[in-house]
Each structure stands twice: as structure tokens, then as C-alpha cells.
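INFO  loader      accepted 1 record
INFO  loader      residues=199
INFO  predictor   begin
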Amino acid sequence: MHMFHRALPYMVAGKTSTQCAPHWSLGVPAYTKATSPIRRYTDVIVHHQLKALGAGQPLPFDAATLEAMLGPLEARAREIARMQFMSDRYWTLVMLSRQPLETPHRALVLSATLDASGLVPVFLVNIGLRARARPLAPTKVTLSPGSGVEAAKSAYASAACVCFVCRQAGQVLVVRASKIDPSRGGAFFTESDIAARGA
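INFO  predictor   done
INFO  writer      dumping C-alpha cells
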């Protein structure tokens, strides 16, 4: 679990290209998707190319034709993925909003440095949700330029420090919801004072 926060930034959507490229998480030198021709037009294209290649026939689409097709197809795929993400997040937040606020959740700290609002980015492990949480006890560290620490100071007026760090990236905390807003996609939590192993 402690290494997951390091891998998370690399878990991004793939890019379709006519050039072979390695697949990071699978660790293979080249990769293509061809398993869903009913719902992905790019998979239909791959099927046609592979069928022609297997039969020893000329490929139906040359590189220039494929490049011209990829732009609009990629834009549409990105929009579909965005809508899917928004829908999934909305219904996840609806589910959370129906739970009692005191319900504990295990959250993985993604970055130790607080944002301008005094919150730290976390990943709720059991439901796969990125959110922000207010930690219990920030500590003093050196200020880095442009960190927006003044706003963070106002959130912790009693702490006379230059910049705030809570816990360590990769640490698992127990958090409880403080505000869930499905219509705006907002999810805010507060670190609980109970041990993470108890959640």
C-alpha cells in the first residue's frame, strides 16, 4: 500500500498512435486494444488491419489515413472518459452523502504538503475516490516558493510555522466526511483521532 501513491500518477489514460510504444504498467514493448469492436471504433480498425495482415493482403488503412482518423476519435474517447469519470464520481459522492458523517474511511496520503486551504490530497482506498482531508497535526517545514502557505496559515492560526506538512505521502489515515457535495463534485474529510487499523 505504501508504494501505491508513487504509482498513482502513472495510472493515466493511454494515447493511441500509429507508432509502437511501451505499456508502462504491463511492462511490454508494444500494446494495442482490440477486444471491444462493438463499442470502440478504433478496435474495429485494429481488427481490419490484423485480418488483412494475417491473410497476407494489403492493409486497408495506411499510416496517413490512420493519423487523420485518430484526432477526432481520440477527442471523442477523451470526452466519453470524462463523462464516465464525472458520472462515477457523482454517484460515489451520492452514496457517501447517504452515510453518516462519522463513518470512518481509510485514506492514503498522496502528498504530504497541505494546499492553500490547509487540506492534504488523499485517496479513499475502499471506494477509489480522490478527495481532500484536514489533518490533525501539521508540522513545521521550510517554505517552497509559490506554495500558497499564507492561506494555510490562516487555517491553523495557532501554529506559527512557515509551511505545513501532515504525515507522510503513502501513509494510511482514518478520515471522516466533513462535507460531501455530489452536484459540485466536492468531497472533504477530516482526519480521525482513531488508529488507521481500526477502520
